[in-house]
Amino acid sequence: MDTPEPTPRADHRALLKPLVAIRLLITGGLMGLANLVPGVSGGTMVLVMGFYDEFINSIADATRFRFTKRNAIFLAILGGASALSIVFCAGLMRGLVTDQRATMYSLFVGLTVGGAPLLYGMMKPMDAKSIVLALAGLLMMIGIAATKSDAPPRSDRSAETEVGEIHIEAAYGLDLLAGLLGVSAMVLPGISGAYMLLVIGRYEAVLAAITAARQWVFSGGSDGDLAWLGVLIPVNIGMIVGVVTLSNLLKWLLRRHEKPTLGFLMGVLLGSVVGIWPFEGETTGSAYLAGGALAAVGFAITFGLSRRSVSGTT
User: Fold this and answer.
1) How many domains does the chain have?
2) Does the predicted TM-score (pTM) go above 0.70?
3) 97-122: pLDDT as tens digits
4) Is the Cβ–Cβ distance between 272 and 42 less than 8 Å?
5) Helix%, strand%, coil% for the chain, nearest 5
6) Spatial separation of the C-alpha atoms in residues 287 and 71, rounded to whole Å
7) What is the rounded average pLDDT of the residues 175-192?
8) Is position 3 within any domain?
9) Which domain holds residue 216?
10) Cβ atoms of 188 and 264 closer than 8 Å
């Protein structure tokens, strides 16, 4: 049965309260970093921090040119923080993902699981349909994890790539698809855009294009050429198409079938941990201890901050 229309969201000034603004900035930063890590979803970070409903509604309204002050402020803070973390951390994250895999993924496991209590609270009381869809989401993510492939090891990269001088080759069709699939990580929790780029073979090319674009801009156009445009333009076109479609679909689902949709998202959230399990092969006891400690830190961050969303701060 359809759920009632949601109550109007609070005044835009609520977003400018210091604690809310800081939490939103942190969410945007985590969203951007997550989108750079194969297997980790930026949408998951928005979900676990308690901003998911407003995120979907704001994007869906924007795609229909229904702008409000609250939507504009919300997307500006979240999107700005996300974009800055992507631009300034793309190169760093590319190295950490391959050289410090257990460290990075342990942290993101904790960040992801830390939001589960909030989502569970939003679902209560759970009905049979929500439970079935939660199991469906869990099984779907386990299936996706079974096809997982990792980022190429640093030892397999050329010296040119390592110093940021990669020769970028555009693949317009694939790059359009990369944007379409990649934006799913911004909208759908648990679905990794970086992983999707790995699947279609454009992970390295897109990160290299972002790095090249940053170098070109900060050098005033004196460092490198504009080859990165051949990658980033179709990627961005694909992202626009994807975000318009997905945001409006999810807005409708959350409005009309809230609890079943949240149930599915809960299954996706928990199942995504399978795909980002940090330990592979032979692992020492100290590695498990370090990983567990970082996971605990990640859990504490999102659990603590997400609780603010249910205490009337927004």
Assistant:
1) 1
2) no
3) 777 778 778 888 888 888 788 888 88
4) no
5) 75, 0, 25
6) 43
7) 79
8) no
9) 12-310
10) no
